[in-house]
Amino acid sequence: MNLPMVAWSARAGFKPNAALLALWTVYLVWGTTFAAIHWAIQDIPPGLMASSRFLAAGLGMLLVGWLATSAGDRPTRSQWLKLLMRNGAIGFFLFGLGNTMSGYGLQYLPTGMGSVFTATAMFWMTGMGASLPPREPTSPAVWTLLVVGFTGLLLMLSPQLLRPGAVHPDFWLGVACFNVMALSWSVGSLLAKRWAPQGGMRDAPLSANSSATPSAKSSAGHSIFLDVGLQNLVASLSVWPVATAGLNWHALHLHLPSVAAWLYLVLFGSMVATPCYIYVVRTMPMAVSGSFAYVTPLVSVFVGTTLLGETLSWPMAMGMGVILASVVYLQRYATTQPAAKPKAATLPACLAPCVATAAVGPAAVSTPASNLPAPLYTVAAQEDCC
Q1: Which of 275, 264, 330, 267 is nearest to 1 (CA)?
Q2: 199: closest CA among 335, 13, 26?
Q3: pLDDT per position in the chain (386 positions), as tens?
Q4: Distance from the Cα of residue 167 to its chain's centroid
Q5: Beta-carbon contacts of residue 221 (< 8 Å; ≥ 6 apart)
């Protein structure tokens, strides 16, 4: 079966094992954050908990990214503005607007039903990846696996969805919040993918003389932690005004379980899992990177049964099996696709005999125009030869 995942498999530096390890880290860590949030909000208001979490994690990741980036690759003052604008948009859509809308939605919907609507982000992400340039060709088999996984999620959560009183009177308001969340998360993920550097974990050098195709002597670029740190800081600033409006700070009384849960969310939920997710988005198809929305509820149910004493019914166990099967097959097909062969360039007839100049690093070499990728043709060459 041929699944043409060409948009990511040709990326320089892509390592399937590293990407899968990062994806399963997201599965396990974000699946446990449901329980951590449950404990954290016992003493900390949800908005303040999220905003302070993003603030602490953002500052921590900026420090890690600064130390992990060599002095020659660190952004200059002027380049920080470019990084802030790019990562600010990603952070706002992914963590700011997305997390805020899910928090409001859970005021009107139970957690299980919220998980179902969160999982619709899979379809948004896959559809955007397949329809917006540069497009990721998506076969019918991928869509089939997505539907099968969503069916398993409905089966797993059916006991909670069908129990009396599960639907809040403001049901449709909760549905609207979660649809905004799913769309916002998908937009943020798409931006993170479209602005991804080659290789995933480090950005291309930001120096003025860096090329789109850096030579072997080019610097490695800055750490991904600088990007994710800025994303979390912008998310914190976007949530903070709403989270602290009318808040009575003197009424806050913190206890050890809430503080420990908050620290877990900062260190593991944000500083470990979030860079892994951005790496997965940069290097894998949207259909695979979005599969966390299917697996995290599964992990959450497992944690709930083992740590919180919740019951596990047969429909839940069957739904878990269906979800795991669909996700494993989706990953198996995605990571076994060969790299795409670049299309041959189409040259104007008058340009074929000419020589175009391609800049490679600091040096310039002359190459027959017929052997150069289309983006390297110069306008001057066409004007001179045609």
Answers
A1: 330
A2: 13
A3: 333 333 334 343 456 788 889 999 999 999 888 788 878 888 888 888 889 999 999 999 999 999 999 888 888 888 899 899 999 999 999 998 887 788 778 777 766 667 777 777 878 888 888 887 767 777 788 888 888 888 888 887 787 777 776 666 777 788 888 889 889 999 999 999 888 765 445 554 444 334 333 333 323 478 899 999 999 999 999 989 888 888 888 888 899 999 999 999 999 999 999 999 999 998 888 888 888 888 888 888 777 777 766 677 788 778 878 887 887 777 666 555 544 444 444 545 554 555 444 444 444 444 444 444 444 434 344 444 44
A4: 30
A5: 73, 197, 202, 203, 204, 205, 206
Q: Hey, where are the domains in the chain?
A: 6-335, 355-385
For residue 1, how many other CB atoms are within 10 A of its CB? 7
Q: Distance between CA atoms of 93 and 386, rounded to whole angstroms?
A: 46
Q: Strand, helix or coil at 53?
A: helix
